[in-house]
Amino acid sequence: MLLTGVLGLSLSGCAGFLVPAGEGEPEPTPNVPRLPGGVHADKLPTPFPADKLPTPFPSVSTRLPDRPPAAQGPAPTPTVPAGCPSSGVVVGMGEVEAALGHRAVGLTLTNCGSKPYRVHGYPSVRALDEAGDPLPVPVNPGSSYMGSDPGPKEVMLKPGETVRSLLAWVSTPTGGDLIEGDALEIAPAPGLEARTFPLKGSDVRLLDELNMTAWRTGPA
pTM of the full predicted structure? Predict the structure, then answer.
């Protein structure tokens, strides 16, 4: 009986060595590839069926819309500077010069506008009394004691350019039938806007007749 018990004990103690190979051991873990972030490839979401694909977002263009062409309005009308007559030219008169009883004064015609101006001929001159009325003083185009007249010549004045004329008369008590004038009215040409220039001094206002040269670009 003792032997039997010993054998039984021995057999029971070695029972673990008599288990068939592979029985009772955990199954090996399958080698499943892993994706970054710890997500198993066997747990990836199932692709969408062809008939349930998500609708793509509409493409957005970054191109700005073309600007409409600027409206083409009428060309601006050139303006005449302040103080310039509507004709675009203005006359001026210098100081009266004296020589042996003769008097002369330089006249100017300046293009004060913004476009060329055609000049051809003589200034328009009249003597005025103290009330501003014209005096019966003859005005002759041509040469005088104070300067010669080469005759009229056409000149195209650019904006800012000037032409000149010389106005002369005799102003002595012995010069003949003299008339006392208070001012001279001068215009670039007959029919254009005139300016009035007072005559100052004692004998400067005594006039017999006026002689003037044509407008020219050189000295009067």
Answer: 0.63
